[in-house]
Amino acid sequence: MTSKNTSNILLIYTGGTIGMIKDPKSGTLKPFNFDQLLERIPELQLLEHHIDVISFDKPIDSSDMNITHYVNLVELIESNYAQYDGFVILHGSDTMSYTSSVISFMLENLSKPVIFTGSQLPIGDLRTDAKENLITSIQIAGLKRNGKTIINEVGLYFEYKLYRANRTTKINAEHFEAFASLNYPALAESGVNLKVNETALLTTHKKKKLVVHKDLEDAILIIKVFPAINETSLRHLLQTPKLKGVVLETFGSGNTKLDQWFLKLLHEAVQNNIAVVNVTQCSGGSVNMGKYETSEGLKKIGVISGKDITTEAAVAKLMYLLTKKLGKKVFRTIFETSLRGELSLVERY
């Protein structure tokens, strides 16, 4: 007899280390046959959920992810949305924060869990982290209370913690604890028990219909400010043909150089309808333009405050909003407003 808290989960493999196994003869890594998933991870049979698996026709390295792949992914979710209670996306860890952030904006009114996970070691490795990440991600995607899903947003699970995906950054290439969410608490933690931080979850409206956005803009640059940045280089970057958006990584709480040429070039960019977003290059913390003289000028010329958004989410939000044909003031207001939980609701000082 099926319990009302049993879930149908769709596992989508896009590529990445988690889907690789080591050839015992050559020692090289090769793609894992997910038809043999239960053979490799028999523990999955202990779960009360029903699991189906589909893969990208050609699994790709996460470094090669682009708009086409993002659209393919949301279309898989869209076409299977009614049949499944939750989705687990297997993805390479290198760009997982970028992809999961973009997907969070593409899926409006999401009322089911979409959980990204991966691993630092292949699924067939003796010391792999893949099994725990995969098993717990499926458990999280299947969590229900009174027949209704508990997590209803895009999450990223890695090494015992579930984070809001658009709050994450990959911070380590070698440790199992590869991701961090420094400006927002974990949504759930896996220990002896699976503990959900329900006060941190997004509030969802189950009756609202899912809206899938498939138009994205990729004419975007990330420009990291450093003390010796020069006028020629910055001008060259800001005059990139057809440039639509810039994520400007600044010092501390949003500070930059006071040189007039610096502000002049940014002002020209803003006047040329290039959306310039100020984010801090610090791992944690928030932009607060106007707190110091070194950020007051940016505020005056129309640079958008990224507040405590991550660089990955800032890129994703620009990709999403730049296709909407919004006026400058409206664009700025919407960017500085939390749409998918990517910004803190209270200004940080």
UniProtKB/TrEMBL annotation:
Residues 221-335 form the Asparaginase/glutaminase C-terminal domain. Its EC number is 3.5.1.1. The active site is at 17 (o-isoaspartyl threonine intermediate), 17. It comes from the Bacteria. One of its GO terms (biological process) is aspartate family amino acid metabolic process. SMART domains: Asparaginase. Transmembrane segments: none annotated. Keywords: Hydrolase. Residues 8-199 form the L-asparaginase N-terminal domain. GO terms for molecular function: asparaginase activity. It is an enzyme of class 3 (hydrolase). Belongs to the asparaginase 1 family. This is asparaginase. It comes from Psychroflexus salis.
